[in-house]
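subagent[fold] <- orchestrator: predict structure for attached chain, return tokens only, no commentary.
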Amino acid sequence: MDVNWDKALNRLRTMRLQGLYRATTRKKCIDEQSDSSLVRCFSALDLTALGIGSSLGVGVYVLVGNVAKTMTGPAVIISFAIAAVVSMIAGLCYAEFAARVPKAGSAYVYSYVTIGEFMAFVIGWILILEYIIGSASVVRGLSKYVDALFNNSMSLLFQAAAPMNISHFSQYPDFFAFGVTLVFSGALACGAKESSTANNIFTLVNLSVVLFVIVSGAIKADFKNWKIKPNCQTEICRKEKGEGGFMPFGIAGVISGAATCFYGFIGFDCVATTSEEAKNPKRDIPIAIIASLTVVFLAYFSISTILTTVLPYYDQDTDAPFPYMFKVIGWDWARYVVTAGAICALCASLMGSMYPLPRIIYAMASDGLIFKSMGKIHSRFHTPVIGTLSSGLLTGILAAIFDLDELIGLMNIGVFITYSIVAACVVILRYEESNSFEKKQDIESYSLLSVMSQLVNFKRLNYSTKLTSKIVTYLVPVYFVICFGVSLLYSTYDDEIKHGNLLFVIPLTVLVFFLVSILFFIYLQPKCDRHLSFKVPFVPFLPAISILFNVYLMVNIKMRTWIEFFVWMAAGFCIYFLYGIWNSNMNTAKKTEKDNLKNGDLPKF
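subagent[fold] -> orchestrator:
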């Protein structure tokens, strides 16, 4: 953590643009045979339980009823199916990278290997924000659920003891949420295998309760509730309850519901952060990601079916749908079973949300991009204790004093960006230079004519070269930009486009044409001949769908959330340009190799 800040600022001012570009785009070389300080103790079953526990939390006990009543009606099952397909595509991309790069750090390491150091830091910094806010929101939800069991006596006590009347802050400091966060942080710091065992128990109880709800609810299920229409006499009532039937809010409601249901699948990516603790990461992580997403989808699909067939969609409770359902059918005893399951589900979700955070910090600290003391491995517990406890303390403070409703959008931004980057990296790596070309040592022409002819693969090459690799590398960012253009145009002027206004239809058609053309040019390029234990099928089309969907969701996030996000990123840029760029292991290796700088001096670019 020793660094001369004044010297760093001075060198940053005098650094040439070319040197800055070389520093920020330097890529990490992965040595798969190198030993890790972390203990390899996770089996495929442990990883699957971690993915299920982090995804199947708040959503199954709250999200289903909320979406069914306000957005989709019984068609919530279609919304979950759409969200599951998009999440599965993202999961496949993560699975391929886990097979390529079996190291701790998830999307951070993936982008470091493929894009460069600065983008890796950006992704890592976003992931830290994502997991902090995700953990804080879960533990706050757990606190509110426990508080409701005791007739709000806990919140009344805290509010009487230390009231807070500050905008965007909580009405009172939630000491329970703070304490629970510290307990879970301590459990994670004590050892990965011990925390994994606790998570497996929580997940098993959670799945048992979900199965109980499905079986018991099936007894009272009546599919006539999918055809029922609300008795509305006013326009306000029709707007709130829809037209009735299976799809009361139309296709728009189903799509809107799918965007919300997407939140219910967030969490599977935490499996990819365990690469250095998995016994066989190249095999177990792809299996765990796909298996966990499949189980989560089946749970959501079944729960949605039971909920909307037992009660009409407009009669759902948006906060606690299952206790309400059992109350209506007269099974009060079942409410306590569901309550136990909800607490276990939230505990498992909290464990899954908190677990990846210190691993991301460990990966970034090991690379020298943030303070290295944060990634120091404890000799007894074999975990990054300082990183675990410090991140847990920050999460506890946020959960205790902040009103997290407005910060949920920040987590979504982080998720959409990381999913998009991983999908883009899959395409870039799939078309990287082949070993066949490296052995031939052919000399390529980079003239305009050569590039234009290679766009359509005029020579019908069957192995990738430096030129084909660079073509794909440059086309992917262009695809991103056009995706933003299409998404902004459609989300801003959707009514005009639906009514056939040529002023907006023509630009949209042109952008879509360029979008399809770029995918066509990428598809024509020869792929790398590297053998992988798992590959995403239908590249580049599946990753391209993932990117387009994530970008569309991003542009629909409100501007205030983006401003908050940029503030967080500004703090990260200060850390990178004043510390990380100088203390990066890549830079240290360069200094050692050249041996032309004195001890303690900063590198010259």
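orchestrator: received. Logging for downstream: The two ends are 22 Å apart (CA to CA). The chain has two domains: 40-406, 427-594.
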